[in-house]
């Protein structure tokens, strides 16, 4: 029966349906949160007990933010793949469906893979990797579409102690090459092609291109579409052939809690993407615990996270979180608008999805298509909704709540980052009233703090830079090969604290509202992008002298990419060149980095010491000309009028 929710101003109370049978009421949250900060050792040991340890840790917390040295469960040994699969099979849950695979086309049959079958698949892949020469500690690059074999590849690496580095299937050959080179990976797992909205993505072709720049020992190719690909003798192996006859047993490697599990590249405000390193024990406990409490998962439920395994959300909340919790997770290969704009809802209806987790950009795009697409399908199975990746505007929140969640599904707005491994700030469905647009409350063990630009701590209802003052189990430990960069990026701005790079407001009820990045990182459709990366790609073009890239508000994407470009002397700008530059960035980085606007300018506004005044460029891109602030320190203040004129012309 549909519940009517009484709205109290901006507060939406916990729906009665969410209180029933919840694993965490408000009283429990308060009690557990207090314990998690008063007695972290006891609290986290208790959470860790849900997992199988090969050697139980005797030590829980062991960290410092000054100097930076982060360790959890230091003397414990475990294998996360065994916790995701073997543990459930041993407990008699082998017949429970682990993954439901919904292919790109609704006409292609779906697949349901039980825990026992998934374990067999992972063992086969693990032994194939061993046959290829992969050893504990080796880095393996995974470049796969959203098919179960992507998850199988990750779990197989984890099983044998290899460190995976998943590269999102939308990234370019250059981006793959850079990541292979940075982590010195000798092995690649890819598919022949991917499918997205009936279009084929040449995954193996892109790997071949990348391998013209860097070399690896072997490439394992999973046959998916059956499309034509080139195989290099001696280097490339078809998975279905090479795996023939491998052993059907493979004991999971005993990993130290602090052995690296994976590297995932993410954008920062400067330089090339950083290889964020997560280790085994803390990450395992963090993803299992956050999955369990944030989604209040109940046995038998179908859970669907629409992220790609190439992002951290896919790592933590398609693969490691749900599988360690023994859940049934849906994996979708396609896109929200193929064959039509109702695909998400058709899939929810078809598989009777109970928990649905997606990004605000997708909600906004689908909202724009109208309610009819939602109404066509029976969404009564939905019990809980979630969002991640960027702030959600209250209008999109309300639409999601009313039209998708039929006014009785709690929405969890989960704030977290690649570096945090899992959820950090979110309401818990059975415990907290919701405020549309606010992520809510800190998760167990998370101690947020707001500081001003000088690092002074701000108390009460206020707004500032979001820091976290204590370590949590799922925290990233380092940047691959560059610990100093890790320290400089996250711990140098405010000594002794982890700085998130986000701005945040805390209201009178101690709810947290993320306001967006305060550094030169932009968030395009929930994807993090360093403006510096787009700038470096642009200046690689032979006609470009200089560029400055900023974000601007975009109705669907949240933020769009605005590029100011100065051409070499004598080169005349025109629309053709703008188009060429757009394509150039797409090929250099990938389609997610496509510029929305290119504005040519004879020069960039700089201070006399040569620093680009980004504040001014941001305001102009936002069409906010009234508050440009002080422009008198510019070397050439007259440039600004030309920039405004250029903006008005587009
Ligand atoms: C999980 C993920 C992290 C950045 C983060 C913040 C933004 C993520 C958010 C959110 C507001 C939320 N972000 N979740 N902002 N509300 N619920 O997205 O990781 O790709 O590393 O991005 O995304 O700005 O700093 P990642």
UniProtKB/TrEMBL annotation:
Binding site for Mg(2+): 539, 541, 544
Modified residues (N6-acetyllysine): 611
InterPro entries linked: Ac_CoA_lig, ACAS_N, AMP-bd_C, AMP-bd_C_sf, AMP-binding_CS, AMP-dep_synth/lig_dom, ANL_N_sf
Entry binding sites for ATP: 389-391, 413-418, 502, 517, 528
Sequence ranges assigned to domain AMP-binding enzyme C-terminal in this UniProt record: 533-611
Keyword list, A-Z: Acetylation, ATP-binding, Ligase, Magnesium, Metal-binding, Nucleotide-binding
SUPFAM superfamilies in the record: Acetyl-CoA synthetase-like (SSF56801)
Catalytic activity: acetate + ATP + CoA = acetyl-CoA + AMP + diphosphate
Reported modifications of this chain: Acetylated. Deacetylation by the SIR2-homolog deacetylase activates the enzyme.
Pfam family, one: ACAS_N
GO BP: any one term: acetyl-CoA biosynthetic process from acetate
NCBIfam families listed in its UniProt record: Ac_CoA_lig_AcsA, PRK00174.1
Function recorded in the entry: Catalyzes the conversion of acetate into acetyl-CoA (AcCoA), an essential intermediate at the junction of anabolic and catabolic pathways. AcsA undergoes a two-step reaction. In the first half reaction, AcsA combines acetate with ATP to form acetyl-adenylate (AcAMP) intermediate. In the second half reaction, it can then transfer the acetyl group from AcAMP to the sulfhydryl group of CoA, forming the product AcCoA.
Name of the molecule in the record: Acetyl-coenzyme A synthetase
Name of the encoding gene: acsA
